[in-house]
Amino acid sequence: MKISRIRTRWITLVSVLYTANTCSQSVIKQLTGKTNRQWVDKTLHIWVDRLLKLINVNYKIINPHHVEPQPGQATIIMCNHASAYDIPLSFKAFPNHSIRMLAKKELSRIPLMGKGMSAAEFPFVDRKNRKQAIRDLAFARQLMESGIVIWIAPEGTRSKDGKLAPFKKGAFVTAIEAKATIIPIGIRGAFDILPPKSKQLNLNQTAEIHIGEPIDASNYTTENKDELINRVYQSIKELVDPNN
Q1: How much is the pTM?
Q2: Taking a C-beta distance cutoff of 8 angstroms, is the pair 105, 126 a contact?
Q3: Homologous superfamily, domain 5-240
Q4: Mode of pairing for the β-strands spanning 58-62 and 124-125
Q5: Where are the beta strands (DSSP E) in the chain?
Q6: What residue spans define the domains of the chain?
Q7: DSSP reduced 3-state for 27
Q8: Distance between CA atoms of 148 and 122, rounded to whole angstroms?
Q9: What does the CA dihedral 173, 159, 237, 213 come to, rounded to 10 degrees?
Q10: Which SS3 state, helix, strand or coil, does residue 165 take?
Q11: Sign of dihedral through CA atoms 183, 47, 84, 201?
């Protein structure tokens, strides 16, 4: 359901306030030495629930293989990226795990947001500086080793038309080096909520979170990483649109 421009702006403003409040809490908790991963997980899910409730999205989780991140195993969620709502929807897939998004470096420069995300153990990656990106991905690997599940959009940016775009290679090198398990996720319907570069929100949409079979990156090397990339691409493509 399309809504008026005024209501769209109101929802956008409230979403920004929810995000700012969550980031503020994260910064304060860190400064007072009272933060911990369990608190961050709980707070992130409160933030996610508020965002999704604002747009009245009806989401469904389809997990036919009963996939779940395993303790002690480095894990990366790789998901298609067609809307700003892919991220909160993805967090609903595994509500009992510590999930952090690999975020673009530009977000770290937003004063409150950057500090809040850093305090909550969100890694950043500088896509414009290859050497720095390698260091950033190494830090993401350390987070995985400590028990955090990393969420990555292998397309690198949001799709302009909702279709799956080509994948960047950096995250796959990290997955191979970390001997990580990749869990592919295909989200259907998020593009209809808020397409990229659009200011028109659509309420009461249905989104489906399809979880695919895990892929063991330890079976690949950097020499044959293209095989891994293609396998993950085909998996997510099938999850997004089985008829394509």
Answers
A1: 0.94
A2: yes
A3: Glycerol-3-phosphate (1)-acyltransferase (3.40.1130.10)
A4: unpaired
A5: 58-62, 75-79, 99-101, 103-104, 124-125, 149-152, 181-188, 206-211, 215-216
A6: 5-240
A7: helix
A8: 10
A9: 50
A10: coil
A11: positive
Dihedral of CA 134/83/215/99: which sign? positive
- Please check whether residue 120 is in contact with residue 44, taking contact to mean a CB–CB distance below 8 angstroms: yes
Cβ count within 10 A of residue 32: 8
pLDDT digits (tens, 9 = 90+) for 153-201: 999 889 888 899 999 998 999 999 999 999 999 999 999 998 877 778 9
Sequence-ordered strand ranges (E) for 74-222: 75-79, 99-101, 103-104, 124-125, 149-152, 181-188, 206-211, 215-216
78 pLDDT above the threshold of 90: yes
- State how far the Cα of 218 lies from the Cα of 181, in Å rounded to an integer: 8
Q: Which residue has the tokens 């947001």?
A: 113
Q: Which residues contact 147 (CB under 8 A, 6 or more apart)?
A: 37, 71, 98
The amino acid that residue 100 corresponds to is R
